[in-house]
Amino acid sequence: MRKLLFIIVCIFALLIGVYPLIYFFVDHKNTFLGSKSLDVLRNQIWRIAFFAHIIFGGISLFIGWRQFGSKFRNKYIRIHRSIGKVYVVSVLISSVAAIYMGFYANGGVISATGFIGLGLVWLVTTLLGLVAIRKGEVIKHKRFMIYSYACTFAAVTLRLWFPLLQNITHNPLGSYLAVAWLCWVPNVLVAYFITRNLRIEN
Known about the structure:
- With 202 residues, the protein is an all-alpha fold.
- 75% of the residues lie in helices and 0% in strands.
């Protein structure tokens, strides 16, 4: 069962990880950008933050899943470290951009608070994971990075929850407000249950 869940996570991570590529091939009015006001779209800082967020967030999602699994990690420790460095840099860029973008979120204070909260938890858990491994605290490192990837995986769960809620409620705005929280809070709770009895595999 665990292997099946891991495979499902990997498939979604790879598929959504390349999602930002659509912005190079699809007219922006048919993407998320089509939902933003002209004032926001004319804000160059917001546009830079947006593309930094989706590109580096996509990278972190696409490569992050490979960090889990003791067999690979123990056999290819140098690759694990190299991927980890790219992952951390990608998350730092994407999370800071996400926090900035959160202030412009559709739906006002409720969605803004949700997305800003996600960005902050994502940033802090990743930094704590980095600090822990630099101190040689492997268990803490693993715990924080599981939380970090749970936040990274919000890119997937958002795209699962939103159409589901829309179909159930027929209320796009209400669905978006709920998804601002549903896309990451349950992920963090799952991370808690995974990490509370975590042990180092030998």
